[in-house]
Amino acid sequence: MTNQEIIRLVDVSKTFDDTPVLNNINLYIRRNEFVTLLGPSGCGKTTTLRIIGGFEDPTTGKVLFEGQDITDVPPYKRKVNTVFQKYALFPHMNVAENIAFGLNIKKMDKKLIKEKVENMLNLVNLKGFENRSVDSLSGGQQQRVAIARALVNEPDVLLLDEPLGALDLKLRKGMQIELKNIQKKLGITFIYVTHDQEEALTMSDTIVVMNEGVIQQIGTPIDIYNEPKNAFVADFIGESNIIDGVMIEDYMVEFANYRFKCLDSGFDPNEKVDVVVRPEDVKLVPKGQGMIEGRVLSVLFKGVHYEMLVQSNGIKWLVHSTLMEPVDSIVGINILPDDIHIMKKVR
Amino acid sequence: MKKGWIAYPYVVWLIMFIFVPLLLIVFYSVIKTTDQGIVFTLEHFQRFFEPIYIMVLLRSLYLALISTVICLLLGYPLAMILASKDYRHKRVLLLLVVIPMWMNFLLRTYAWLTLLEKNGVINSFISFLGLPKMELLYNQGAVVLGMVYNFLPFMVLPIYSVLIKIDKSIIEAAEDLGANSRVVFRKVIFPLSLPGVVSGITMVYMPAVTTFVISRLLGGGQFTLIGNLIEQQFLYTGEWGFGSALSLIMMILILFSMAIMSKYEKENEGGGLF
Q1: How far apart are CA A89 and CA A79, in angstroms?
Q2: Which side of chain B, N or C, has fewer Cβ within a 10 Å radius?
Q3: What residues pair up with B40 in beta bridges, in sequence order?
């Protein structure tokens, strides 16, 4: 992966009928990177993608492509292609005609077009589907045609707007891997929009977490998962216990009536903070051996692990563990300094 | 079909009011009454091939064709404006297209008389400006105008109903793949709107070919169309045989053109009114 920058958004804001949708987005995307815009619905991720694609104009701000301002360049002149949420295949054309659409507009040689279409169909595992009508395809197949139709133009950047949203879980998982492989094989920058945090963690090189039109955090999946910058990110990426705490001094935080050692410093003495602990980092130990104690309220079997709720000093801890503790038993709770994430209160 | 009996009243209705009259028309078209009684003849059909009647048919087809083309040229852009998301007043506009259809057809055509008359609204205005009065009525132009005015909504609405159903993301996809607005129209919007265009053409062309009210009122009887001819046979000259033969010929022509139309329409389902 090179570090060459390909797309940059500079101070991009967008309002629809006086409703702010994007607020001062600054973001750059490197060549050959798989970037995911992640956030709940209405967070502005699709709008961001549509601004890059040229389908929406930013109210203020600029879009740069390889350093050049393309804010006012119409979509058909941009070197990006899009895979739409609902595939948006041309219903009056067959599979091959759909894929060849962009090449035909470029007036490319017919023979070359045919060859490229064939290669693309091989890439997306749809060999022999050339003359099928798009209506006769399943959702997954239509999705592949949409991807092939975009990729055949050899764009510098491929934009994908929740492309797997309409597929069932199993198909989705398969397509995630396929998409990642295609991206690696062709070395194209992918900008991928999803609200599915697991999908984002699986596929991305970089995740951009957004909420209410503001970028919350940009980082690798590991960074985002392990070092969420604020309570929103922690809550949105995976499950978390988010607890009110007080920073007593550097490397010492109090919550659940207990002073825990932690790795954070630089807060004011007695500053109120959000404490984030992942459910799998709450370690249950036999009664008397823990830092604090609690009573098991409920147990759910989740396949790989058990999900338990443990009440302790007014806090309900969400706990993931491979070992089951019976309901109503009293257990000890240990949390290691490494697993305690301290965040400044946002509100 | 367990509940086939539900169809019986309809079947009876169809037999009484469609099948039997049709048989009667066929019957009248091939008989004549002579001194020996009723005999079989094809002379009514032969008579149609006299140049004067062929001319009437050709004129009907020609005027209807011109009206249809004008309706299409006027109606397609209007349908596009109505279907576009950005246009603010489209509800009002749509209503304006539809409202005349709520009014009596005859009344609408009479209204044009008062507008186009020698001493009508338009000529009064022209002479007010000091210009010579014009012959606006009783010519081909007036007949075509009447057809376009009366049948335009039947062109606009089917096209509109198809256009509004085209997914916006399909248009965006075409733009995304490098198509400018002209190419988007040529390669995506127009092909997808064809079912609407076909049914629009059908719905304008058919009544335009067979109309007799418009040509009588606005053409002043000088422009006999096939509809007028048929009307005359039944109401004035009493030649039911010839009238029936003409009706049958019209029906066959219409069937023929419907068949051609539906051939173009076959794959594109939905949207049209036929």
Answers
A1: 20
A2: N
A3: B31
The pLDDT, as a whole number, for residue B126 is 85
Q: What are phi and psi of B69, to 5 degrees?
A: -60, -45
Taking the CB of residue A268, how many other CB atoms lie within 10 A of it?
8
B170 to chain A: closest CA residue? A88
Q: Is A92's CB within 8 Å of B192's CB?
A: yes
Q: Are residues A89 and A156 in the same domain?
A: yes
Helix (H) or strand (E) holding A21: strand A19-30
Reported in sequence order, the residue ranges of A175-279 that DSSP labels E, i.e. its strands, are: 189-194, 206-211, 214-219, 241-249, 252-255, 258-261, 271-277
Query: pLDDT of A276-331, one tens digit each?
Result: 899 999 999 998 888 999 999 999 998 889 999 999 888 899 999 999 999 999 99
What is the mean pLDDT of the segment spanning A48-76? 93
Sequence-distant (6+) residues with CB within 8 A of A73 are A54
Share of chain A above pLDDT 90, in %: 65
The range of the structural domain enclosing residue B144 comes to 52-265
Nearest CB to B176 within list A81, A85, A86: A81
Contact B177 A90 (CB under 8 A): no
pLDDT of B162-178, one tens digit each? Answer: 999 999 999 999 999 99
Q: What is the pLDDT of residues B158-215, one digit of tens each?
A: 999 999 999 999 999 999 999 999 999 999 999 999 989 998 998 999 899 988 888 8
Let me know whether A286 and A188 are in one domain: no
Which residue has 């595939």 as its token pair?
A: A87
pLDDT digits (tens, 9 = 90+) for A205-256: 999 999 999 999 999 999 998 888 888 898 888 888 988 999 998 899 999 8
Residue B245 lies in a domain: yes
Residues from chain B contacting residue A84 (CB–CB below 8 Å): 169, 172-173
> Which amino acid is located at A290 in the chain?
G
- State which amino acid sits at residue B256: F
User: Residue B190's pLDDT is what?
Assistant: 94
Q: What is the CATH number of the domain that holds B255?
A: 1.10.3720.10
Nearest CA in chain B to A76: B178
Domain range holding A93? 5-233
Q: Are residues A186 and A48 in the same domain?
A: yes
In the prediction, which pLDDT does A89 show? 95
Gap from A130 CA to chain B (nearest CA, Å): 18
User: Do B166 and B246 share a domain, yes or no?
Assistant: yes
Asked which of A203, A233, A263 is the last residue of a domain, the reply is A233
User: Chain B residues with CB-CB distance to A under 8 A?
Assistant: 167, 169-170, 172-180, 183, 187-188, 191-192, 267-268
In residues, how long is chain B?
274
